[in-house]
């Protein structure tokens, strides 16, 4: 990642505003991937971060300086995105890298994660004589980045991508999930949700109290799996006897979160 990846904007560029809106609408896919990353023993993501605006008012002039910067170590409770500032501010003096922030979902400006594709392994004798092929992580999301890339001449765009050391692909085709072109069904449900079905059933049989346990925000397992968009997990939880009427600390049921995040494949299951 570039040392300082900022966007300075007066908020009047309609294309940038559109990028912000698309990032907020699709953030659920970022969180779905991040939620599975949190369960992996071996990390699968090369990068996962969210962009938000930070501001500081000049006490003498009253002018407001705004910088859009990235936060990482992301958490999400269905309403609020939290994490730690990654960047060194250019002009702001009231914040610094490592500061913790909680940001309403409707105020983020972008999200980005990157995954390294499986490298093509040489076969036969070529294993002995060929050097390993460099594989660049594939980027997903990055709506504001693609907006900027679209405005760049080709040579500048290549220089930008090289600085990030990421494969951003075509700025006209922003991908949301891993292997989206090869496996469009991944847009509906994360493959790990399906692959872990047997293990999850076994887990709930061994630890049935997990169905009713809630964290400090009042989120139960049903809330969390709904927020992450995991249909298979939601079905298993309901079949195990979870109470779908339980409310979070903010007074929301799992169905409320499904509707709020527009998980269309989960809403009917929770309404049933």
Automatic annotation (TrEMBL):
UniProt keyword annotation of Methyltransferase present: no
InterPro entries, per the entry: Ankyrin_rpt, Ankyrin_rpt-contain_sf, DUF2314
Transmembrane segments: none
Pfam families: DUF2314
Entry keywords, A to Z: ANK repeat
ANK repeats: 217-249
Domain DUF2314 stretches: 13-168
Highest taxon of source: Bacteria
Protein name from the UniProt record: Uncharacterized conserved protein YegJ, DUF2314 family
